[in-house]
Design a protein that fits this description.
- The two termini are about 20 Å apart.
- With about 190 residues, the chain is α/β, with parallel strands linked by helices.
- It is globular.
- The strands form 3 sheets. The chain has a 5-stranded mixed β-sheet with strand order 2-6-9-7-8. A two-stranded parallel ribbon has the order 1-5.
- It contains 5 helices and 9 strands, in the order ββββααβββααββα.
- α1 crosses α5 (about 160-185) and α4 packs antiparallel against α5.
- It has a single domain, classed as Aminopeptidase, CATH 3.40.630.
């Protein structure tokens, strides 16, 4: 187990044996790994500050291996799915952070949603509580990191959202890495 208090954890929300949403020949797992790798490329605090998931690792294995401390930042990257007309970006935080709009997690989630909306030109669906998901509670948001955010970049099922992702992913991931580094520096 990796026990650490001052690291940033960029997590690709799906892995090799869990493709996540699949739409129009694209797999969420491939997109989240690409986003994570771009995050690493642009993370301004250096790669030594990062702890990554493994592409062949399940969510359960990951959660057993890492133990983010109160001074760490965890960003779990996903792509949303829905009807073809569904559009936008959103972030999820745990119940406690949702109740405290001044928490680091809530503030980081809000910044990520706003930046994504602005850069991709898609609606900002805002910050939501984990209780709004079909699972009700998301383990990855409750591991003890000082700042934990699950980010739904855009809708894999919306061709316009995905076109904007393809055109602007480098710019977007640079900005998201900078936002995460800012919260990493706040510890």
């Amino acid at each position: 187990m990796i026990l650490t208090n001052y690291k940033t954890f960029p997590i690709a929300g799906h892995h090799n044996s869990d493709p996540g949403a699949v739409y129009n020949g694209q797999k969420e797992a491939d997109l989240t790994k690409e986003a994570r790798n771009l995050f690493v490329k642009y993370f301004p605090n250096g790669k030594n500050e990062l702890i990554l998931d493994r592409d062949n690792e399940t969510n359960t294995q990951l959660q057993r291996r890492i133990k983010p401390g109160a001074g760490s930042v965890l960003l779990d990257i996903h792509f949303n799915a829905g009807p073809r007309t569904a559009t936008g970006t959103e972030c999820l935080v745990n119940r406690n952070d949702f109740a405290n709009k001044d928490s680091m997690s809530y503030r980081m989630a809000d910044e990520i949603s706003k930046a994504t909306s602005e850069i991709l030109g898609i609606p900002n669906r805002g910050v939501k509580c984990e209780s709004t998901t079909r699972h009700g509670r998301l383990g990855i948001l409750n591991l003890g990191a000082g700042c934990s955010v699950l980010w739904e970049v855009c809708f894999i099922s919306n061709p316009d959202d995905m076109e904007q992702w393809d055109l602007k992913k480098e710019i977007l991931m640079k900005k998201i890495a900078e936002i995460s580094a800012k919260y990493d520096d706040m510890r």
